[in-house]
């Protein structure tokens, strides 16, 4: 029977880089998972044995890849995939599911794409560091969220540096400048009654073009990002303060409590009050 360690990360309050779930498994012969699609990036590192990955490429075609010990594979958000352990020498692997503002950039720097999902280490010493970071996270699930996120950053750094064809940093691209300007404006003004037009104007762009480049870079619209940012701030206040639901709504840009509660439930599936009770937050008023 398969041996499994599986954990769900306890916090969603990390925007730059977030962890969702992680684990380790020694698979049974021919053990398979899928076809399925994830909401976030999912990286598997094969520690021993072998198996195969069936994953959609950029054209939506299913492509088969053989993955053996010392290699890995990355699954992209919404990419349909199946992975199967070898029937004679089933793989043992460790995995991390992650996302955030820095995730897409790191994945691109490491040279991954829908058509190039397989990881083959270029530097053995850096590969060993990456493996240790992954195993550390799996075996230290009770450490603080900030502590684990720190190790997730170290994992990503090793992943990029050990990849066979790391891409050059293109921080000077004009699009990157616009996205950073948008982030800065949202961080400073999310509590105010701002619109996508306001964010675009702060970047010196028209709304249509701004929306296009934002979605291409972030995988979501500016409006979706703004709502997600506000709701993340709301969960911090619900958990760490005794502010009323009305006051928290005001702080994150929703002076109408009904509108705030509706937006919050659309994101988290429960009301702000229910979320607070479930996460042991401050006493609601």
Q: Topology, please?
A:
Blueprint: E1 3-8, E2 18-26, E3 32-36, E4 41-48, E5 50-56, E6 62-68, E7 71-75, E8 81-85, E9 92-99, H1 101-109, E10 118-120, H2 124-139, H3 145-162, H4 174-189, H5 196-202, H6 207-218, H7 222-240, H8 245-251, H9 257-268, H10 272-278
Antiparallel strand pairs: 1-2, 2-9, 3-8, 4-7, 4-9, 5-6, 5-8, 7-10
Helix pairs in contact: 1-3, 2-3, 7-10
The H-and-E topology, N to C, reads as: EEEEEEEEEHEHHHHHHHHH
Gyration radius, to the nearest Å? 21 Å
Which CATH architecture of the largest domain?
Answer: Sandwich
Structural class: alpha+beta
Major pleated sheet: 6 strands, antiparallel
State the shape: globular
* Mean pLDDT across all amino acids: 87
Strand content: 15-25%
And the CATH topology of the largest domain? Jelly Rolls
CATH superfamily annotation of the largest domain: Regulatory protein AraC
Report the uncertain regions: none
Count up the helices.
10
**Separation of the first and last Cα atoms:** 49 Å
How would you portray this structure in words?
- The chain has two domains: 3-162, Jelly Rolls, CATH 2.60.120; 174-278, Arc Repressor Mutant, subunit A (Orthogonal Bundle).
- It is built from ten helices and ten strands.
- The N and C termini lie far apart (49 Å).
- It has 285 residues and is an alpha+beta fold.
- The longest helix has 19 residues, at 222-240.
- The protein has helices at 101-109, 124-139, 145-162, 174-189, 196-202, 207-218, 222-240, 245-251, 257-268, 272-278; strands at residues 3-8, 18-26, 32-36, 41-48, 50-56, 62-68, 71-75, 81-85, 92-99, 118-120.
- The protein is globular.
- It has a six-stranded antiparallel sheet with strand order 1-2-9-4-7-10. The chain has a four-stranded antiparallel sheet with strand order 3-8-5-6, with no helix packed on it.
- The mean pLDDT is 87.
């Amino acid at each position: 029977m398969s041996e499994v360690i599986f954990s769900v990360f306890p916090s969603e309050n990390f925007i730059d880089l977030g962890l969702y779930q992680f684990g380790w498994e020694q698979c049974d012969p021919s053990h398979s998972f899928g076809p399925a699609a994830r909401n976030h990036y999912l990286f598997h590192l094969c520690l021993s044995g072998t198996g195969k990955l069936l994953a959609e490429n950029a054209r939506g075609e299913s492509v088969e890849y053989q993955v053996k010990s010392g290699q890995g594979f990355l699954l992209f958000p919404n990419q349909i995939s199946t992975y199967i352990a070898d029937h004679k020498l089933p793989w043992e692997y460790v995995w991390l599911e992650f996302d955030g503002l820095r995730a897409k950039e790191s994945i691109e720097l490491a040279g991954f794409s829908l058509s190039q999902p397989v990881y083959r280490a270029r530097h053995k010493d850096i590969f060993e560091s990456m493996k240790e970071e992954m195993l550390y996270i799996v075996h230290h699930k009770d450490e603080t969220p900030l502590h684990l996120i720190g190790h997730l950053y170290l994992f990503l750094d090793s992943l990029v540096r050990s990849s066979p064809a790391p891409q050059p940093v293109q921080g000077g691209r004009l699009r990157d400048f616009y996205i950073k300007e948008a982030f800065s404006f949202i961080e400073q003004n999310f509590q105010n009654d701002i619109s996508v037009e306001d964010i675009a104007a702060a970047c010196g762009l028209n709304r249509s073009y701004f929306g296009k480049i934002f979605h291409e870079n972030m995988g979501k619209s500016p409006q979706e990002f703004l709502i997600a940012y506000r709701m993340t701030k709301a969960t911090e206040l619900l958990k760490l303060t005794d502010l009323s639901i009305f006051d928290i709504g005001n702080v994150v840009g929703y002076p109408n409590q009904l509108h705030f509660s509706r937006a919050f439930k659309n994101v988290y599936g429960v009301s702000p009050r229910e979320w607070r009770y479930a996460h042991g937050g401050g006493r609601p008023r």
